[in-house]
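ok posting inputs for the MU-OXO-diiron job
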Amino acid sequence: MKPREIVPGVHFVGVPDFDRRLFDALIPLPDGTSYNSYLVRGRDKTVLIDAVEPSKLDVLEEYLAGVPRIDYVVSNHTEQDHSGGIPWLLARYPDIGVLSSETAKPMLVEHLGLDPAKIRTVADGERLELGGKTLRFVYTPWVHWPETMSTYLEEDRILFSCDFFGSHIAQTELFVDGADCIMAEAKRYYAEIMMPFRKIIQKDLDKIKDLDIRIIAPSHGPLHRDPASIIGAYRDWTDDKPHNSVVIPWTTMHGSTGLMVDRLTAALVERGITVHPFNMGTADIGQLAMALVDAATIVVAAPTVHVGPHPVVFNAVVLANALRPKVRFASIIGSYGWAGRLVETVKAAMPNLKVELLAPVVAKGMPKPADLEALDGLAAAIAAKHKEAGIL
Ligand code: FEO
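and the output
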């Protein structure tokens, strides 16, 4: 591949990965992903922004075939899909220096075995003159590791944001112009890795708001030529106010919990509430995470297996607890054969969710009329809470 010009002196040297289907052995990648790097050439110095995933170094090598010297590689983020190529760069360009945030330096040493002497830390707001092009380093921590930063190219008004504003999608087009065609992928990415750090990301957004940005160039997915759209979406996703929606991770073994989910869903819809039920036997956990970005309420719906919640639903509880969505209300519904500790076990597994627990509904065997009426009552209680919260 040949470097592709974004603006004069700035080239895309990234690699789409159309075949990858899983990240971190956890996150589904239905659309693949990409590992974006950028070559910035000033009159005096040449800089590479981020490196690529080690498995794609052959492509980076091809890109850089005609580049005899690189002065610095900027490591915006230590995770290996962006920094894993740095050891190869150090071998290919023995004089190259690594620029990173202060927090990143020990992490680069720890994760990649880099020689600390090769790493120069840059302060928040520090500038680097390349000759007609000026890089400014902006600390944007916790998107999604503690050491993350963005790099702003002042003359061309490009923000190289690494994971921040990125999306897991492989495509050959460099840019996305409108919001809609990439927003689902970007939201999926935010949901899966950034949602736990929502409050800090609000501050990151405040921090970049005074930058005059023409292009956001992340290190996954296409570049944004309409920065306001993706920044606006991040404002909404990180905002404290949830939407009028309920997420129900569920499964059923003999139909009882399934009937309860159907009844509750219908009762919520009748009350004007959006419902996202996910049958965890087949659900894409990325879709579940996306629904949790906005939801005001989560209702865990599980049958009982060996006195505890069914494991596929319990996995969803563990995931939701880790993702720390902005949900305000929760409940637990489900069924059991002879005995169980469904409610206690689910409740204990979500300490990170700062929720008000609404009365659970648990049926012995098939739900009876009283159980179904209790589900209508739960729907009414959820609607009342959403009204109080000003979202219904
Ligand atoms: Fe794309 Fe956090 O690495």
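notes: Residues 77, 79, 81-82, 144, 163, 220 surround MU-OXO-diiron (CB under 6 Å). The two ends are 52 Å apart (CA to CA).
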